[in-house]
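User: Study the shape:
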Amino acid sequence: MLRNRDLGVELSPLCGGYAVATKPVPIRQLLKFGEDFEFDLRAYELRRCGVPLKLEPTPFRILDLLLELRGELVRREEIVEKIWGKGVFVDTDNSINGAIRKIRQVLNDDPEKPRFIQTVTGRGYRFIAPVIEADGDVQRLRVVEAGSDKTGGVPIDVRQTKSRPYLAFALVVVAVALALWLVPTFSRHTNAAPPIRSIAVLPLENLSGDPSQDYFADALTDELITNLAKVGTLRVISRTTVTLYKHTNKSLPQIAHELNVDGIVEGSVNREGSRVRITAQLIHAPKDQHLWAETYERELGDALRMQSEVAGAIARQVRAQLTPDLQTQFDSAPPVDAQAYDAYLKGSYYLYNSDITVPEPLNKAKEYFAEAIRRDPNFSRAYSGLANAYLYLVWFGQGQLSAEEGYKLAKEADRKALELDANNNEAYDVLGELNLHADFDWNAADRAFNQSLSLAPSYSCAHEDRAEFLAFMGRRSEALAEVEKSKAVDPSTGVELAAYFQLRDWPRLVETGVREAASNPNNWMVHSSLGAGYEGLGQLPEAIAEYQRAVELSNGNFNAMASLGHAYAAIGNKVEAEKILRGLLQRSKQGQASPYLAATIYAGLGNKDKAFELLEAAYHDKSLDVAGVLKPDPRIDNLRSDVRFQNLLRRVGLTN
């Protein structure tokens, strides 16, 4: 006789290969928790305020297990054994993750501040809310397959009273439950998979049990998105947008609707020493239908190849067309030194998941990319990451790296990246930015952005950079078309605001800015852009209010301060304008702020000579503003008719 000690029932053989409880023990039939939730084993329902809630069978059984062992840690292995059984091939990691997510959705439980289900990272889950157990005489029969694992040993609960005649009825219920469980499984394998033309990769879950490894999961998510972005027939949502869904309680159909995608990829990462295990599953999100799942395990040095394998497998599952070149890239990803790859991932994390308008994360990114290169001098993407870090340090490093030195270092790193890998799309995007801001070579910038997008059609950074470039060049229809492409892969992008600013389309800039400020009230750049729109329309009081908000939210960003100072000057408030001007001049002497910013305030004060003196200094410093806002900037409109301004435009390679 077998004993199931967890359930407190004894099992004995029964004809037909099943085992049933011969000594059923009375258990709870109705549990109450929270303020208004009821878990009813008699009706097999979860209710809130008496209203049944929709919860699929697997999440229901997992919730049943968590409630039964409430207060105790229920290990993931224990969940697998109790719900699916031993020796069954299922994607248990993602199945558990998905089931827990669905339970939290119906309970409205925040994983960051749980009221009901606590995650013990890398180990399991614990039901933490107080539970009231109602009295009853309902018995549970634990029915499992004794002689075979073909059904996965799926546990099925049936209910009976103390009268033995109900045993036959219970077995009928078992048969029906088995049929209902098997039919959807059979259908998933026999029905044609729905078409998937767009996809979002949700942040991979860190299962290492070590919160310090969160960077690893986030960076691997970025890597998977980067690989999938190369598939031309697939629209892939950017890392910036999917990060907003980390730890979300939203259902997959809701996420798919918000992102306008057909497919969702979700999964987990577990790192133990030098071994990395990635589990990924593909879901047709509108119907929450599981299409594919696989687990990959490699040494860290083979992680590039593993990422390519995952991306290639997903592409094949959605029947995406892979070019021969891309197929070769996926099949022949080179090995990389394990410590170099780890350093690269840390650099990527700081570069793409931090506030890059402050120097600290940029310096960390630069150091990690440099470490990756020292450990593996043939690692192309470490070089392009380093080039990007140098660019941002020139622009946002507050004088830590001059434009002359920074652009030189960025060019050297980017050239090496392309020498090692001619298919490095990030390196081409960086090249476009260097052509634009360091060389004022507009044709070369156009070619580089186009090349980046030809290699990775869903690469959001290149779409955004090209849209701003086209708007800066005055190519309106092309710019707005590129804006739409950028929004399709990165709905959270602010490129629309940047494009309307470059096009000097003040009415649409204000219209878009008002809409964005309503949904992103704490984004200082939105308020700064809205202020520029109001200033372009001559509505200075409204502009000042938005600039003040931008300064407050950004903790005194220099560009926001300059805009506010110029607006004060324009309405005749010289005291406040000159106060801001003195601070910017001091920052400019220290190399922390571009002289261009002080020039805009001098322009507002009517001191054109001093304004042009500082514009010349900005030109020689290769300031970001010269090839960024010089042409459309409303703050210097009163300088445009001056011959000195026309001369400056010609030297930059622009016409007024």
Notes: The CA atoms of residues 35 and 49 lie 9 Å apart. The chain has four domains: 2-190, 198-335, 422-501, 504-656.
